[in-house]
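Listing S7. Sequence submitted for prediction.
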Amino acid sequence: MRLAKYLAHAGIASRRSAEAMVAGGRVTVGGQTVTDPARDVDEDSNVEVDGRPVAGPEPRVLYAVNKPVGVVSTARDTHGRPTVLELVPAAGLRLYPVGRLDADSSGLILLTNDGELANRLTHPSFQVAKTYRAKLGGGTVQASALAALRGGIELDDGVTAPARVRRLKGNLIELTIREGRNHQVRRMCAAVGHPVLELSRVAFGPLRLDGLEPGAHRRLGAGEVERLRAL
């Protein structure tokens, strides 16, 4: 198995993060520093990260979490804010978030120790749909603004792909995108003159919040995980 994939399967990090660890000289194989993430290894290769042995693959788990506003979606925070990892009892497993929601946003986020699945769910080439509900400011949202969001918005990092958009009531809209740019929904809405006042992710691929209370979590079943892999 390739070294980066081995680290991801061991729950060390996502595959992309594992590749960065290897390139940064943090990984040794048989006591020798290795910088090639494609190096073949197995459980007898004596792989270490930062001098600590990698014990081999952990049992794969995947949790759905309803992140409240004010909680950050990183493994740790230098400012001491609560993180999504504190919402799930890890039982010794090394979990990390799949994708991100900013601290001012709420809703569905996934936690896992399956680096390969995390990569498939977040890599742009797989175009996994994510659905948000946004309460907008800036006056009444006109049909022309919704049409612009559906057609693609010119942002400073390029034109967005077409989005699915529908008005729920008043200035509350539901928007589905298949990209993962930084603060993308907020920037798209601001670009059509309607700053986001409240933002919540309600679906990630086929998964929905479906009654999961803020701060609550649940472990996904095997069938749900397989549907995500199939994406």
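Caption to Listing S7: primary sequence and predicted structure tokens for the chain studied. The radius of gyration is 20 Å. The chain has three domains: 3-53, 62-124+207-229, 129-204.
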